[in-house]
Every structure is written in C-alpha cells, then in structure tokens.
Amino acid sequence: MWKTEAKGVAHVETAVRQCLPPCQIKCPINEDIQRTNVLISLLPRDADSAREGTLDIGDYLYEKNPFFNICGYICGICELECNYLKKGGAIRRRLLKRFLSDAYTDHLAELKGFQAVKNGEKVAVVGGGPGGLMCAYHLGKRGYEVTVIEAFDRLGGALWLVPDYRLPKDLLQLTLDTLVRVAGIEVRYNSRVGTEELPLEHLKNQGYKAVFLATGLPAPRVLTFERQVLEGQDLAGVMYGHTYLYEVSHNNIALDYFRGKKVIVTGGGNVAFDVARSARRHGAEVTVVSLEREDKDHRDGIPADEEEVRGAWEEGIRILYSRGVRKIIGENGQFKGINCPLCVSVFDEEGFNPRFDCEDCVDLEGDVLIITVGQSPDVSLLQKEGLLDEHGRFDIDHLTLQITNKPWVFVGGDVRRVGFMVEAMGEGLMAAESIDRYLSGVDMREGRRRDYEGYQIPMRRDYKREPEVPWMPPEDRMHFRMFEQGFTLDEAIEEARRCVTCGPCLSCKACVSIGFQKSLSPVEVDTARCSGCGHCVYACNYYSAHLITSGGKITSETDMFRCKSCGMCVVACPSEARRMVDDDTAERIGSVYTSLA
Amino acid sequence: MSEYKPKLVCFSCKFSWGYLTDEETISSTTENWVPVICTGKIDATHMLDAFRSGADGVLILGCPEGDCHYQDGNYEAKKRVHLIRRLLESVGIEGERIRIELSLDPEGTRIPDLVEEMRNELARLGPPKSILAAEEAPQETARARGGK
User: What is the mean pLDDT of residues A250-269?
Assistant: First the structure.
C-alpha cells in the first residue's frame, strides 16, 4: 500500500481528550514521568537489590526514548510545569533520570537490536541530530530500513555543543552508538543533501520512499541592530558562540586560552551561558550582555534556565541585563568593545521586536566578543529544494510535518522551529508516525490532535522541600568535568516519594504493574441510596467526586478521569451509596474475620 | 488464663509496608494480616467488625506522615482510630485494643514483631468485654463513620 496523494479537502479533526499530569504534557514526547517516579519510589534500598528494578525502569524508558540518559543531564523542562513548584520546589525529575542514566549506562552495551521484521521500505533521514535519530529509531522499530545522511563525521548534531561539564562526551558517544546499533540504522557520514552531488530528488531515485529532513540550524545568526547587520563582526577577536563551542567540543582549545582576557558574550539563551561558562573555564573574565530582563516571569525575561544563570553568577560571570549592542568598536582591525543601549522592550504583539533607549548607553571594553544570539538554518538548501513558500516559511502541515507540495518529504526539529533537544525529539517521533502512516496508506491526521487536560495539585497537608543538590564550589569547578552530584539511591527514592502523582491513574498504572492492585476499580454510585450530602466531595483529594442535580434530586458523581480508586469516598459515604467495582478488599477482610471465629 | 491467646487483625498499607516481600511470606509469619492499598480505605465498620467477629485487637500500619500515595489516607486512618478508641471506651472496652503505627518498612520485617508486641499487650489486658453484648444494650450507639 502506497499513498501518493494528499487529501484534497482540508478538514479539522476532533481532538482527542487526553488527561495527563502537567509534567507529561510539558514533555514533548509525553514521557511516562509519573509512572516511573512511582516505580523508582518503590525500589529496594540497597544497591544490589535495586539494580534489576532500576534497569527495568531504564528499559521501559529506552523503549520510547533512546536519549533518556542524556535528558537526565540536560533536559528537565517537565520540572517547569510541576505542580509542586510553588509548594516547595518542583520534583527533580531530571536528576531522577540522571540517577537511572548512571545505573543504565553500563547496560547500554548489552541492549539487543530490534527484532522487527523488515518491511523492505527504505526511508532516508537527513541530519543525525536528536530529531533525526529519534525518527530513525522509531522507524527502525517499525521495520523500516533507515539511512541517516549526516553532513559531518559524527552523529549527534548540536548535542556535541553542550559543554562537558553538563554532558560528558563519552556518555553522548555511547548513547549515539547504542541507538544506531539497536535500531539497525545505516549511517552515511560526510554527505550533504541539497548539494549538486546529492539533490533531494536523488534520494527518491535511490529507492527512498520518504525523507525526514532534520538539518537543524547549522549557521550562526549574525548580530543586528534595528534590523541592520552590525559592522565589525569580521574584526579579529569577534567570533560566534556556535563556532567556539564546536572547537571546544573537539578539544581544540587549551584550558588557558582566554587567560587574562576580557570576553563579552552577547545573548541570553542557554547557549550563551554555555559559551560564557566555557570561556570562564578557559580563564576569561566574562560579561554576558543580555537583551532580556533579569525577571524570568516577565514577558521579556531572560530565556536561559535559572540553574544556568545561577551557575554563571556563582562562577563570577557578570551579567548585564536589558542591554543591546548598537556598535562594535574596533581599532586596527582588532575588537575593542561594544556600545550598549538600554533595551526597553524585547517582544511586542508582533513578536521579537526590540526597542532601545539610546540616551542610556554604556560602553563595554573587551578583548573578545562572542556572539551567541541564535542560529539559522541553511536557507539556500531549503530554497534550492523548493521547500519554502514566498514568505520564506515551510509550506507544511504542522500536525504531520508533511511538506504540502512534496508529500514524500517531512521536516522537523530545529530547522522548522528552534527549541530544546526534546522538542526536536518530539518532532522526530511525530515524523516517524507520519512516515509510517504515509507509507502504509493510512489517514495522515486521524486521531492525532490532542486536547491535553492537566491536573491541579491534589489536596494535601504536608509538602516537603526540594532536596539540595550539591554542586562543587565555583573555585573547584574551573574545568570541564561534571560539577553536579547525582542522586544516590536513597536520595532518588526519597525524591520519587515526594512526587504527589497528581496525574491520572490511566496513564500510569504503576500500582497495577507492581501487583498492588489487580486493576483500577471504578467507583459506582447507587443514586437511589445517595442523598447528595457531599461527604464524598469533601473526602476526595482529587476533585473527582462532585454533586449533580438530576430529576430534581441532588446526587454525587465521580469523574473517572480524575478518580484514583483510593476508596476514600466509599469509606466517607454515610449511606453506603458508593462502591468500588471489582475490588476484593472487603471480601479479603471478610474471609479473615470469618477465620477468627 | 495462661492459655489465652489473643487474636489480632493487622492491616497494612501496600505503599509502605512489605512491598519488597511477597505476600505469602508475610502471611506465613503473620496471621490475619490484610494488606490494603491505603489505610484510608479501612472503614470504621471494618475496624468495629473485627471486634464483632472475635478479634481482641486491631493493628493498622500506615505510611509515614506526609508520605501517603493518596495524599492523606494515613491521617484519615489515624483520625478514625482515635474516634473508634473513644467509641470502644464508651462501651467499656479498652481503647488500646486498636492501634495505628505510621512508618516505613519496605521489607515488612517489622510486621511480625509489631504484631507480637501488640499481642503481648493484649494478653496482659485479657479477653475484652464482648462488643456484641455492649451493642445489645439499649442506648444508642452511633454508627462511627469516617469523614473529615
């Protein structure tokens, strides 16, 4: 089966209602966070006994996310939506995953390859970053023969630009090697699609039935002021953050490279902070000039993670907020400094549109300027291949990532929209589903739109504070080794126990898999007995029991999406109007009582 | 009197007690042991029925304070135990015959010890006054129910 035509009629699918805990909604691949938190919380306390269970949880995560052990080091966007955030600090899911990762790393070499029967269809993935590889992994799992076409001599894309003190390179390499091996992917290194030798169309001739283009953002964005490219970016001493991190990742820069130098970094994102903190480790006195404000909650707040900003501050990096760059000052071809006006607003209704107060300017002297204000795609490739519309945007279906006039081409990852690693992975996952549907002749869109419904924090008496995560003191971490200590087994269990599991049971079922319950028993209300007193509403910690009026009578009802089958409403009911279907607790108690006689 | 062996029913929360040991192993050392998904699920009538059925005491083992998987089931159980004690005392039965312990014991090794400890206390108290006889007395005995 092989579909060549896109559906001619535009139609809007009804969205599927899906209830998830807020962390899982935030996670672009909807990882089973709650479930695995519960499983971690029930691990044995001694390392030897815990090993098997830990690997099981790792296997479970790996099934969907072959990058999970990297996420444990550099992701954690789920923590931003954690209901616990305002009650004592988010559950440190990233560190829980790092804990799993540290236990799982040695196990990666033992993982077996997919046993899927090959279906004979060939798919090409262009770009071997997290988006491309995620797509390749999931297509490999479904039996496709996948070739990853990588422009450089290594896979991983922008992941290599994350400095070693946040993500150890050997872990990254091992993760990439394992993924390729497990998914049975063929990799063509040093080959660039879109060149004369290899236009996109050639892939079709080579037998590839579909292509996922995830070429990322390989080019640094140049510095502009009021939409004009700033002069002086070719001065000696001016470089781009991307280039610098690339050299750092290849160990091409000596540890004292910037000793005694004043380095100015422009930008306020995580990459700018990677650059600043790396330069600091290379001996520089560093100033970060950020267009955005210090207050992260403000619309114009700095986009870098709080941990990055705190880390940089601890390491003695000066951060200048709300400052732009109006002029790059040079002397005899050598960089000397910048002129920074006050930035009064970054975003307006139109989007990114910074405004400045040029009356309020400061001059900043420096020896080196590292420009880290974002990345751009290889536009010439995209234009040449006819993938962009007249506005320079992809003519793409955002639900399926399929290019409208080239239905065999799918585009995703940073090249479509810049984001976090896991966002690119999410698009890789989406693309794999799309390509599978496309090649199987199944409707491309049906059932894919989701209306996520989050959960508020349940009613509870006690909240515990988030744990202190030890970092090496700044003076001891001026190197590129990890400075953050991961959780011990005990700490991981404690932190996992702190999770209030605010999401629904249906997407979790951890208690069922470990045998605490045979199934999730739904609650049934006998409306004839129910007097509408509301005791159950009061007893339920999950806002699941509520009162309704029907036929002039007030009775109670339970929202099954929110119900946790804990049975507290059943116990609270004074008229025995509530019961749990298929629950054997009462029988079990009954048989013990009978044996007493 | 030396022949008197008190009968004890022990409920324990699955999320904190003995989840690393299989149920048969604990059952083999602990008679009349009922693991429940949450101690908040133990109805007041369950507690009273134990005495009606001939138990001399009830021991409830719940999650540590602030650790309930269902948010506050352990507090609910604790509150209920407190109320049941008052009720038992009002009909002349010692309140100590029902006890709750909020703690964590994944291997469940302490379960038989705690049961034994309470059994010794019950032996010291001797057989309880019959709750059935007490209930047959004409005064109204309110049905003890949970609720916040």
Answer: 96
Identify all chain B residues contacting A44, using CB atoms and an 8 Å cutoff.
Answer: 20, 106
Q: How confident is the model at residue A381 (pLDDT cuts 50, 70, 90)?
A: confident
Rg of chain A over all Cα atoms, to the nearest angstrom: 27
Phi-psi category of A408—alpha, beta or left, where left has phi over 0 and alpha has psi -120 to 50? Answer: alpha
CA nearest A211: which of A411, A409, A3?
A409
A512 CB near a chain B CB, below 8 Å?
no
Tens digit of each residue's pLDDT (9 = 90 or more) over A519-556: 899 999 999 999 999 999 999 999 999 999 988 899 99
Q: Nearest residue on chain B to A464, judged by CA atoms?
A: B66
- pTM: predicted TM-score of the whole model, two decimal places: 0.92
Q: A348 is written with which tokens? A: 């307006």
- B3 found inside a domain: no
Query: Shortest CA distance to A546 belongs to which of B70, A533, A453?
Result: A533
d(CA A553, CA B6): 49
- pLDDT above 90 coverage of chain A, percent: 83
Q: Under a CB-based contact definition with an 8 Å cutoff, are residues A508 and A120 in contact?
A: no
List the single residue in A with minimal CA-CA distance to B14: A516
Mean pLDDT of A385-397: 88
**For chain B, how many structural domains are there in total?**
1
In a domain, B53, yes or no: yes
> pLDDT of A409-454, one tens digit each?
999 999 999 999 999 999 999 999 999 999 999 999 999 998 998 8
Return the H-helix or E-strand segment holding A273.
Answer: helix A270-281
Tokens 């002021």 belong to residue: A225
Q: What is the ipTM of this complex?
A: 0.88
Among A212, A210, A213, A131, smallest CA distance to A381 is for: A213
Q: Which of B106, B145, B148 sits opposite A45 (nearest CB)?
A: B106
DSSP structure class, residue A497: H
pLDDT, average across residues A88-102: 96
Tell me the residue range of the domain where B83 lies: 8-28+42-98+113-136
CA dihedral A53, A57, A63, A66 (to 10 degrees): -110
Q: At what angle do helices A306-314 and A270-281 cross, to 10 degrees?
A: 20
Interatomic CA distance for residues A24 and A510, integer angstroms: 15
User: Is the confidence at residue B133, as pLDDT, over 90?
Assistant: no
For A535, name the nearest residue in chain B, comparing CA atoms only.
B147
- Measured CA to CA in angstroms, residue A144 lies from A138, A413, A429, A596 at distances of 9, 21, 14, 62
Given a contact cutoff of 8 angstroms between Cβ atoms, the answer to whether A501 and A37 are in contact is yes
Nearest to A387 by CA among A400, A403, A364: A403
Do the chains contact at B67 and A458, CB–CB below 8 Å?
no
Task: Inform me whether the C-beta atom of residue B87 falls under 8 Å from chain A C-beta atoms.
Answer: no
Which domains does chain A possess? Answer: 21-111+468-498 (no CATH), 122-218+377-440 (3.50.50.60), 227-368 (3.50.50.60), 519-596 (3.30.70.20)
Per-residue pLDDT for A12 more than 70? no
Residue A8 has pLDDT above 80, yes or no: no
A60 burial class (0-12, 13-18, 19+ CB within 10 angstroms)?
middle
In a domain, B64, yes or no: yes
| Residue B105 lies inside a defined structural domain of this protein | no
Which residues in chain A have Cβ-Cβ distances shorter than 8 Å to B42?
571
Distance of alpha carbon A325 from alpha carbon A12, whole angstroms: 45
State how far the Cα of A551 lies from the Cα of A108, in Å rounded to an integer: 61
Give a three-class secondary structure readout of A4-30.
Answer: CCCCCCCCCCCCEEEECCHHHHHCCCC
Q: What is the distance in angstroms between the Cα of A513 and the nearest Cα belonging to chain B?
A: 13
Burial category of A256 from C-beta neighbours within 10 Å (exposed 0-12, middle 13-18, buried 19 and up): exposed
Q: In this structure, are residues A235 and A327 in contact, taking their beta carbons and an 8 Å threshold?
A: no
pLDDT tens for each residue of B20-53: 999 999 999 999 999 999 999 999 999 999 999 9
